[in-house]
Every structure is written in C-alpha cells, then in structure tokens.
Design goal:
2 domains, mainly alpha, Retrotransposon gag domain-containing protein
Amino acid sequence: PENFDRDRKKYKAFREALMLNYEDDEEYFADDKRKIAYVLSFMTGGAAAAFRTEWMETKIEKRMRGENLKSTYESFEWFAHKMETRFKNVHEQLAARNDIMILRQGKNTAEKHFEHFEELRREANYL
C-alpha cells in the first residue's frame, strides 16, 4: 500500500491494500505482531505518524512495567479496532446516502453514472 497520513478518504483504500497483502502471504502474516509492524511502517505523516509514535511509546512503557501485552499491543484485532476508531470516516454511510439523493448523470455516460451509483449504494449500505 501507499504511505498513509490520516486522510479519511484514503483510509478505506489503505485498509483494503493491507488486507490484500495479508491474503497474498498468509504464512508470513500469521503473527499479529508482524501485521501490526507492517501497518505501522506505512504510517509516515500527519496524524498517522502521531498514531504510530503514540502506539510505540505506550507499548514500550507497558512492556517496561512488565504488563502482559498479548491481548492489547500484540493483538492485531485490538490494533485494528484502535485504527478504525482513529481513522475510519464515521460519516461515510451518511455522506453516501446524501450523495445518492443529489446524484445526477450530467455529462457522464450512462455506464459511468451507474458505476458511481453502485459505489455510493455500497457505501450507503443500501441492499
């Protein structure tokens, strides 16, 4: 994936690229710590870099205090939840629903128009 800087519009594509890489080499990414390190290596700018620094500093502090990190800082599920909370656009579904209401074909071909509609429909979670 490309480096991630926090842009919520790019977060979904970033997350999807990560998942494709995990699926491509399931054996290598079987270890949660390896997955977490991989994601953090792409968080290079802005709020994403701040998230990475905060994550690493807190993990080091907790390790130095002898805390068990297995269910937190060494758990990809926990990490993914924290990442979603920080970067996912919580208004994505609402924005897509609003965009559907004002969607017009304009100068687009019918094919382009319906492709865009289908994309918005998925984001809006309309069945």
